[in-house]
Amino acid sequence: MSRAIDTVKTIATPVGVLGVGVEGRATIDFLLAQGIADVTALDANPVDGLPGGVATVFGPGHDHDLGRFATVFRSPGIRPDHPGLAAARAKGTRVTSATSLFLERCEAKVIGVTGTLGKGTATSLCAAMLEAAGLPTLLGGNIGLSPLSFLERATPGHLVVLELSSFQCMDLTRSPEVAVVLKTTSEHLDWHKDVDEYLAAKAHLLAGQAGDDRVVFHADSPGSASIAASGRGRRLAYSLEREVEEGVFLAEGRLVLRMDGRDQVLPLDPGAMRLPGRFNLENVAAALLTAHLVGVDPETACGAAAAFEGLPHRLELCAEGHGIRFYNDSYATRPDATLAALACFDGPLSLILGGSEKHADFGPLARAVAKHPGLVHVSLIGDTAARLFDDISRAGPPDFPVMRCPDLATAAQAAATALDRGGVVLLSPACASFGLFPNYKVRGERFRALAQALARG
């Protein structure tokens, strides 16, 4: 029996897809490709460009009477305890998700990566190491490609690397053979009830592991360590602060792999990597350990790490001119991400902060900004500009200008002008982009264009 036929038999119809964003659209395309025609798209807002034949319910009431479907796919932005889904379950509807279905049906070995910081970079690093070793590799998940798009191509000889958010993990019942839990603090508290729920959502990634599965975790992160301790898989740690019992750690400036009581200094010079920052070295350590667990030799993995240039909008060096380097860190939508970026630069440094309001605690960031020895200017944009200005002023007062700007163009110009002797302009907003831009990608692309123009002029 083919996987396609088997998959069709496991999905009872009619099917509703609740939430038609990137993953919802990919789910609809997958269902249609499997010959499942009785599909309804459900969303609070009208959605254009759906395939012909797909029924739609948009606007108020789209999430009512979900019990009329035999199966409902929950998109990541919809809470599993949504009242409409709870009522549907009570009527016998199966509620699932694209990630859940993929893990149930995938014949390949899966590496699942979660955490608060570094998921996209660590996931991509790991995939790059596997590919460098010549291993058939498929990359997807929260990084932008639904794994359902390659489910039919994933054979037992493949390795699948998935970036997984708390939204995607929250109701998983199957787990990857290798789970990677990066530094985990708190995030999405405008969606999760509290930090405990956020950590519990991440822990679902491990809930279905067996004793011969593996968990890679950040030994210096209490959140990561607590999640790792909740699973049954074999635990292996990585740390830049201390030796670990089994895993990867930093000693005398070099990464060391410790397995089965034996130490091996890895052939990678951290100072020669293209990725800036200590937090990126943590991502490298996690990826090196993960790659080792699936059979990649250290020399190959370290070569891939040394050559890795990073991802767009994540400390991306996007322009250089007149002694100024422009870094696009638009993906930094949380204060702790911006704190990590600040630690990468000594100065002279001009920083662009601000965006939409998620009621994050700016206290630690404000103190770090006020006391940063290399900062010469801060530009503030968006709804959070006034609150950031007040927090930074209370933490200082700083001995450099902190300017509220009406838009990103003004902010970038002011930041570059402040560097009359050269230095770094860093966009690392610590906030989401809404109100000024549709998402962090559009914000980053706009900054890249502005930076390139300023570098030329």
Cα Rg: 23 Å
Sum up the overall morphology in one term. Answer: globular
CATH topology of the largest domain: UDP-N-acetylmuramoyl-L-alanine:D-glutamate ligase
Helix content bin: 25-40%
Task: Profile the largest sheet.
Answer: 9 strands, mixed
CATH class of the largest domain: Alpha Beta
The CATH superfamily of the largest domain is identified as Mur-like, catalytic domain
Q: How many separate structural domains?
A: 3
Mean pLDDT: 93
Which residues form runs of ≥5 with pLDDT under 50?
Answer: 1-5
What class would the helix/strand composition place it in?
A: alpha/beta
Can you give a write-up of this model?
By secondary structure, this protein is of the alpha/beta class. The protein is 33% helix and 21% strand. It contains 15 helices and 20 strands. The strands form three sheets. It has a nine-stranded mixed sheet, sandwiched between helices.
